[in-house]
# Entry
Amino acid sequence: KQEVTQIPAALSVPEGENLVLNCSFTDSAIYNLQWFRQDPGKGLTSLLLIQSSQREQTSGRLNASLDKSSGRSTLYIAASQPGDSATYLCAVTNDYKLSFGAGTTVTVRA
Amino acid sequence: GAGVSQTPSNKVTEKGKYVELRCDPISGHTALYWYRQSLGQGPEFLIYFQGTGAADDSGLPNDRFFAVRPEGSVSTLKIQRTERGDSAVYLCASSLDRGPADTQYFGPGTRLTVL
# Structure
């Protein structure tokens, strides 16, 4: 069974600092890895999707890397803003199912 | 176009009651998924439909949970004899079903509270 772990569970930084969120997974036979954002009481917003053949994806201030062989991904958020405060979830796809980590809750202090 | 919609957005029920949660997928999406997210956890897979049939229901926790998709579009998740442990946000997603790595689009979820 795929297990996805996210470290740290919570993170608080001052505005302008770079964020580094980590995700690890136990079964490397994945099709892709996705990072989601979830605001309190809201659904999931997809941020980045990395196919298993790719090493990284970038969108604006967000950059995600994938090392499939070691079962790790890192999400970098540059120059954080208070609007980046949310929970960030990592998910991997095996056989149609998404397996999620428990998330990292980020607070960016103004 | 319209995204995945779920109704109701909130449902409060008493222990032992029966509830139905509805999901309307994106038009044209043949694959539909249900996930359950407990407080402080990531979503957990429940069931996956290809068209009208359940292709994988391995995530349903027990026989109190059942889901249908009779016409290959709208799906209903049914929970019998609800228990307090069933309290969670139930998320629905849909995709074009072009393969196992196809992008899943999520609805806003139904928050179920069992008193």
